[in-house]
Amino acid sequence: MSPSQITELEAIARAAGHAILTVYQQAFTVEYKADESPLTAADRAAHEVIVTELARLTPEIPVLSEESGDAELQARHGWPRYWLVDPLDGTKEFVSRNGEFTVNIALIEQGRPVWGLVYAPVLDRLWYGGKGLGAWRIAAGERTAIRTRPHREGTPWRVVGSRNHLSRETLDFLAPLGEIELVSMGSSLKFCVIAEGDAELYPRLAPTCEWDTGAAQAVLEGAGGSVTRLDGTPLVYNKADILNPWFVARA
């Protein structure tokens, strides 16, 4: 990914964030999809911004968004390379107005996220990176390289978990670790906290979809971390089922 492309992708994410905040700052209605997940005008507005701008920037690369239709969901199986987008990750956080939601844009090649960008509009923080490429955070106008900090023996495990999906299976997974410091937060921010070195573990033993994880996985892997299934194999993309298996993100 060239510096000029990164600059343009950053601008796309920020434009989507602006569209989200326009809705966030006023009264809005909430609809529910067939799977009972919430949907707002902000999801749709961010989707339109990102899909339109990616088509302009890279017309040769198709786009799959959480708000795409069935045609794209079927066609993706023939795509060796595509953009994977969650225009508003953490709609429940958006609805509850706690600020913990993100814009997510990932580049998938041969089933792996090779580059990703995560933007938190309320925090005005942006993270990007990819495995073998490094990872960076942009905050308060400063661009800083980030790196994970693995767990040190004899200290509590610093664990991030979902505010809305902390399942019994997750608690059982954590039990053998001993002392933990658990921080609950929403959306793909959990990966970014690990990428910055402020946590070490994020076990997800509850449902997610590929667009929920692709961008943040790339950032975390760029910072030296990993995202694997429970058996230790990599979390891969463009599977027959858009749902992810259970996984663990580690520093």
UniProtKB/TrEMBL annotation:
Positions contributing to Mg(2+) 1 binding: E66, D86, L88
Location in the cell: Cell inner membrane
Binding site for substrate: E66, L88, D89, G90, T91, D212
Reported cofactor(s): Mg(2+)
Source organism, top-level taxon: Bacteria
PROSITE patterns named in the record: IMP_1
Annotated binding of Mg(2+) 2, by residue: D86, D89, D212
A GO MF term: 3'(2'),5'-bisphosphate nucleotidase activity
Catalytic activity: adenosine 3',5'-bisphosphate + H2O = AMP + phosphate
Cross-referenced InterPro entries: CysQ, CysQ/Inositol_MonoPase, Inositol_monoP_metal-BS, Inositol_monophosphatase-like
EC number in record: 3.1.3.7
Record membrane topology: Peripheral membrane protein
Keywords: Cell inner membrane, Cell membrane, Hydrolase, Magnesium, Membrane, Metal-binding
Function as written in the Swiss-Prot or TrEMBL entry: Converts adenosine-3',5'-bisphosphate (PAP) to AMP.
Family: Belongs to the inositol monophosphatase superfamily. CysQ family.
Name the record gives this protein: 3'(2'),5'-bisphosphate nucleotidase CysQ
